[in-house]
C-alpha cells in the first residue's frame, strides 16, 4: 500500500510529505465547515427567538471559520435587527464585495444607503446640545447725581417774609387806635383822664412804630433770603446779615 502510494505520488509529481499535508488540510477545512454550519443553525434559532445580538456573535464566528458570502449576508441581517445600523451597512457592503454577482445587488445598495442615513441621524441626535451662552449681566446705570435743591432754605425766607408782612399789617390797627385814643383825650371829663388817655395813645403809637419797623425788616430780610437761597451760593456774592434790631448787606471787595 505504501509502495503503491509512493508510486502514485511520483507519477503525479507530488512528494509524499506534500500529499500528507494536503490531506490534513482537507480534514481541517471539513471540520471548520462543519463547525460553521453548526454555529449557523444555532444562530438561526436565536434569530427566530429575537436574540439578535447572540445570533450576530455566532454568525461572526461562523464566518471566521468558513468565509462564505451568505454568512456575511445573514450577519448583516442580525446586526440590522439589533439596530446597529452602521455595522449592518458595512457588513452588507462586504457581502457585495465577496459576492459580485449577487442578484439583489441594487436592493442591497439601496438598503446600505438607508442604513447609513439612519446611523448618521442617530449619531447627530445622540450628540449633547450645546449649552446656551450665559446671558450678559444687566448693566445698571449709575444714578445721576441730583443737583442740590434749596427748597428748605427758600421756604424759610418766604416764611420770614410772611411774618414780617403780618407784623407790619398788625401795626396799622394799633396806630389807628392810638390816633383815636389821642383824639378822645380832648373829651376827657378830667385832667387826670386826659393825661391817662394821652399816655395810652403814646404807648399804642410806639407799639405801632415797632411793629411797622420790625415787620418791614423781617419782610425785606425774608424776601432777600428766599431769592438768594434759590440758586447756588457764592461766597463772593453779597449776603444779607440779620441781627437783633438790625439788617446789614455785606458786599465783598474785589
CATH evolutionary superfamily of the largest domain: Tetratricopeptide repeat domain
Determine the mean pLDDT.
72
By CATH reckoning, the class of the largest domain would read: Mainly Alpha
Alpha-beta content class: mainly alpha
- The structural domain count equals 2
Strand percent estimate: under 5%
Question: What low-confidence regions span 5 or more consecutive residues with pLDDT below 50?
Answer: 1-25
Assembly context of the chains: single chain
Rg from Cα = 63 Å
End-to-end span in angstroms? 150 Å
**What is the number of helices?**
8
- Which shape, going by the Cα principal axes? rod-shaped
Largest sheet: 2 strands, antiparallel
Tell me what the CATH architecture of the largest domain is.
Answer: Alpha Horseshoe
Q: What is the strand arrangement across the widest sheet?
A: 1-2
CATH-defined fold name of the largest domain: Serine Threonine Protein Phosphatase 5, Tetratricopeptide repeat
Order of helices and strands: HHHHHHHHEE
Number of strands: 2
Summarize the amount of helix as a percent range: over 70%
Account of the protein in words:
- The protein is mostly helical and 254 residues long.
- The chain has two domains: 2-121, Alpha Horseshoe (Serine Threonine Protein Phosphatase 5, Tetratricopeptide repeat); 151-250.
- 71% of the residues lie in helices and 4% in strands.
- Strands 1-2 form a two-stranded antiparallel ribbon.
- A hairpin with a 2-residue loop joins β1 and β2.
- α5 (85-98) packs antiparallel against α6 and α7 packs antiparallel against α8 (191-229).
- The chain starts with a helix and ends with a strand.
- Mean pLDDT is 72; it is low at 1-25.
